[in-house]
Design a protein that fits this description.
single chain; 73 residues; alpha+beta
């Protein structure tokens, strides 16, 4: 599993970095990301769902969102 801490980045950079990381993974591999930017906390999960990737929310509070993403075909 690949882990990326994107808490220091602001929208749209976290989404771009997630897209680039997913390109490096094989189908079925997992990526875990941590987000803090409010816009990215909405945009990244929406993008992943629209693309059909598996998505599990591991942690969500007022400051951080941690997601586990399973790459789909």
């Amino acid at each position: 599993m690949v882990f990326i801490d994107l808490t220091s980045y602001r929208c749209p950079l976290p989404l771009v970095k997630v897209k680039l990381a997913l390109k490096q993974l094989a189908v079925g591999e997992q990526l875990q990301v941590v987000l803090s930017d409010p816009g990215s906390r909405m945009d990244v999960p929406r993008f992943l769902k629209n693309q059909g990737h598996g998505l599990q929310e591991l942690y969500n509070d007022a400051n951080r969102l941690t997601l586990r993403i399973t790459k789909s075909a």
